[in-house]
Structures are given as C-alpha cells and as structure tokens.
Specification:
Number of strands of chain A: 2
Helix content of chain A: over 70%
Structural class of chain A: mainly alpha
Oligomer: homodimer
Order of helices and strands of chain A: HHHHEEHHHHHHHHHH
Strand content of chain A: under 5%
CATH class of chain A: Mainly Alpha
Strand order of the largest sheet of chain A: 1-2
Low-confidence stretches of chain A: none
Largest interface: A-B, 54 and 54 residues
CATH topology of chain A: Farnesyl Diphosphate Synthase
CATH superfamily of chain A: Farnesyl Diphosphate Synthase
Distance between the termini of chain A: 22 Å
Shape of chain A: globular
Chain lengths: 299, 299
C-alpha cells in the first residue's frame, strides 16, 4: 500500500484535471447568459475543491478499464450538484455560513438572490452535461447516469437529507437517526459517484452490489470523520468554522456515540468497505486508499 | 375555428389529466424522503395551475400522432421546472411575493429554507422523470428531451433570464432589451415545451423550424399580454398583485411601447405564429387556438 502522500498526489492530479474541465465548460457559457450569474457560478465551482466525488466516478470507472478522459464529463456533472448544494446550504435561511474554503460564500460575495439562482443553474448544468453527447455516445448510458444522479440528489437523497437535518437542528433533537439523515444528505452523492463509475464501466450486477457496499461505508466514514473533525479540528486546517455542530446542540455521531465510539464506528466502516473491494484485487488499490484517506483525514 | 370556450375546455381537460399524473408521481414519493419537503413540493405543484407548458408538449406531440398518454411524463417534467422557478422567484430575496394563485407562497406556508429545498427538489424531479424508462422506451428520445429542457432552464435560459430581470429592476433600467430578457425568462420554457413535443413526434427539421417560429412568437405573446394585464387587469381576476411592475419602474413592453404599441406588437406575434403553423393544416387547430387564447387572455 503506497504512503498516504501518494494517494493525496493522485487525488490532487485528478482534481486539477477536473478543475480544468469545469473551467472550460463554464467558459463555454460566457456571453450566452447573464454575466453576473456566470460569475457567481464560477465563484461557487472554481474554488480548488478536493473533487472527491469526481475522483470516485473516475476511479470506479477505471476499475473497468474506462479512461479518465471518458469519465470526465460525468465526473464534472456530480461536482456541479455538490457545488449547487453547498451554495444553497450556505444561504442565510439555511446554515447561514459566510465562509467556504476560506473564501466568502456566494451570497456574501454576490447577494442572496444571485446565490439562489447560481445554485439553481448549477443543478441544471449537471443534467445538461450528462444529457449531452459529449458525455457519452450511448444515449442509454447517458440516461442511466442521469437517473442515478437525479435519484441521489432530490427528495429521496441529498435535498431530503438537508431538510431532515434542518428539522433535527430546529427541534434540537438528540435522538434522531443521524445515520439515516447523513446517508441521504452526504452519502447519497458519494454512492451515486461510485454507481456512475460502474455504469460507465458496464459493471455486472455482482460488481455493482459490492461497489454499493463500498460506497455506503465510504459515505458513512465521510460523515463520521466530519463530525470528529468538528470536535477535534481547528478552523484554519478544516477551512470552515468548527465546533459549530456541538454549539448548535446538533445530533452527530460524536454526540450520540462519544468520541471513542465514533472512532470505533469509523474503523468498522473501513473494514466493511475494504472487504467489499476484495473481488477487484489489485485494481482497487486507489479506492482502498480513498477509504484509508477518509478515515484519517485532517480536513 | 371553435369558440374560445371550446379551447379553454380542452386546456382544462388536459390540465386535470396532468394534475392527476403530477399527484400520482408525488404520492409515489411518500414515506421515502422528508415528509415536510414533500408537503412543500405538493403545495407548490398541486395548485390548479393552467398547465400551459404541459399542454404545449402534449398538443405538439399530437400533431405527429403521439397520444396524450405517451407525452404525459415529459409534460409533467416541464411543469416541475416551471413550478420550481415560481417557488424560488417568490422568495423574499427575489420577487418577495406572498401570494400565488390566491394561496400563500411556499415560503409563507412553510418557511424560507423549506422553499429553497422544495424548489431544488422539484427541479431534480423534472430530470428524474425524463430519465426514467416510464417516460419513453427509447433512451435517445429521453436524452434529447433532457438536453432540451436543461438548456432552456439554466444560465442561458430561464435562470439567466430571471437574473437579468432582477438586475434590470435593481438598476431601474428603462432601456434594457425587454424582449431578450423575457425570451430567456419566460420564452425559453415555452419554446422547450413545443420542442419536446416535436422530439416525441420525431418531427422533421422543417417541421421543427416552423414550430420554433410558432413557439417564439407564442412566448413573446405570453409576456406582452402579461405586461398588458399588469396595467389593465385587477388582482382578483389575474390571481396575483397587479400594477407591481409599473410601481417598481420596471421596464416592460407597455412601459417601452405604450399600451397601444404593446397591443400592436401582440397582434404581430399572433400573425407570425399562425403563418408558421400553415404547413400543418387542420391538425394545428388547437395550437392556433392557443395563440388566440394568449392574445386575448384575461388572467
């Protein structure tokens, strides 16, 4: 197993490839819409993010011999959904965050109406990218990718999870099912990223099933580590305010299981994810490292 | 040509067919997401709207022998986009409207965060419906419908138009290109509805071109008549506050052309739309009536 630094280098290399494509797609829109809206969309998207969901699309597709170039459009599509959700989650009526990756959030840098519209147009962009022939020459693959991403993003996925999260916070409910809320809010997109890679790779059902177990545990690890960082991290490293969840009396894995309990659960998800990858042998090295990276992340 | 009342009856019949399908689609989500979010989505969608965009999808498809049943899923998809845009446009940070069709808007009936998320999830629903095999068994048709709707909805269409409209209002600009703004904000979806009907009907290029001229003029007529109603209508009939645009010093067709000038332009769009339908002969009777209805609407 390579040192973690090798993994972060792989992640960074793919991230810059994704960033270049995102910039090219947005640049292609210049002069064809509202300049201010495009500027807000660029602000939301071209922010040096880790591009973890695109990475998962690309690396899962690579398990089946699909090149990163062939997976890149689908990879950007899921990043647009992720970015739109951050813009809307940061709004004053939602989580009311002024800072994202050390930069002013969209409604601070622009204004609230522009932030609402930028999120809206970024969501549309995701589906526009997937529907285009530039994404894939087989329309059946395009439609499958679309259905996967849409199902993960809406009422029964990300948006529904954010609603439940807001409700839980408002009620200061300590006994909510954190795992269910987070599996919708954060997990659904991570699962969709892996599933989209499998669609691009024309994976067999048994392979899809194994990848689903992997991605569900990966998503869970993502949220548990986020909750741990909220307690143990500092704002400068994490790049956003910490201590916010505990300050808000929000139900988290740490508040429900304690710090040690959360760490034990994190370890368990890691084991289950790695077991699911066994059938892919050495080919799954990068996906294994992704899981290890998630369990030990500092930001 | 039948009396206008025959047309409004056709429109109402299709609207109730569309409403039944919309309700069924939303009911199928019950218990699978956040209850409050689904309730807000239902509030936004099941409001007795005219369903004019679904009507255009269905009637354009009917030109080519496609049954209303076969066009119904695509018809609901565009209505979800329309409804999402109304929920977000009504937000306090946007047009700040409390009333829609005589009912409290979503952020009034629920709250602002729920309204943002309901709009988001309704947009997702549109693409989910189109990507599903229930919509059409040919994935190429599904992908074409998706691309058409996405292009019309985003930065270069509806969302971009709303941004330009807000900017024009903030600047109290009297010399903005109202026609360009409105062709994006309102016209893009009307054009997409007709184009989606043509896609379902496998229309030839010459037929698509003629239908584009029809739909562009129809969209223009929609906006001109809206501007006229803002000046001449009363709130009870129109179902929303009137006099709002002129009170806000907003550039409209009436403010730029005067009431007579706007009526003359409306008449001109009608003539151009009807000329474009000539090649379809008697089959286009309902689409002709739609144009006449638009020019003479009272609400």
């Amino acid at each position: 197993m390579p040192a973690p630094s090798d993994f972060t280098r792989t992640l960074a290399q793919l991230a810059s490839k994704v960033e270049v494509r995102l910039a090219a797609q947005l640049d292609a829109c210049a002069g064809r819409g509202a300049d201010r809206l495009l500027a807000a969309m660029r602000h939301a998207v071209l922010n040096g993010g880790k591009r973890f969901r695109p990475f998962l699309v690309i690396e899962t597709a690579a398990l089946f011999g699909v090149t990163s170039e062939a997976a890149l459009e689908a990879a950007t599509a899921i990043e647009y959904v992720h970015c739109y959700s951050l813009v809307h989650d940061d709004l004053p009526s939602m989580d009311d965050d002024d800072l994202r990756r050390g930069q002013p959030t969209v409604h601070v840098a622009f204004d609230e109406a522009t932030a609402v519209l930028a999120g809206d147009a970024l969501q549309t962009m995701a589906f526009e990218v997937l529907a285009s022939v530039r994404n894939h020459d087989d329309p059946a693959v395009r439609a499958d990718l679309l259905l996967e991403l849409a199902t993960a993003s809406g009422l029964m996925g990300m948006a529904g999870g954010q609603m439940l999260d807001l409700e839980a916070e408002a009620a200061q409910a300590k006994d909510i099912d954190v795992q269910r809320v987070q599996s919708m809010k954060t997990g659904a997109l991570i699962k969709a990223a892996v599933a989209m890679g499998a669609i691009l790779g024309h994976a067999r059902q048994a392979e899809r099933d194994a990848l689903t177990i992997y991605s569900e545990n990966l998503g869970l690890a993502f949220q548990i580590s986020d909750d741990i960082l909220d307690v143990t991290g500092d704002a400068a490293t994490v790049g956003k305010a910490t201590g916010k969840d505990s300050g808000a009396n929000k139900a988290t894995f740490v508040s429900q299981l304690g710090l040690d309990g959360a760490r034990a659960k994190l370890h368990q998800t890691e084991n289950e994810a790695l077991a699911a990858l066994e059938q892919f042998g050495n080919r799954a090295g990068t996906l294994r490292n992704a899981m290890a990276f998630m369990s030990s992340r500092k930001s």
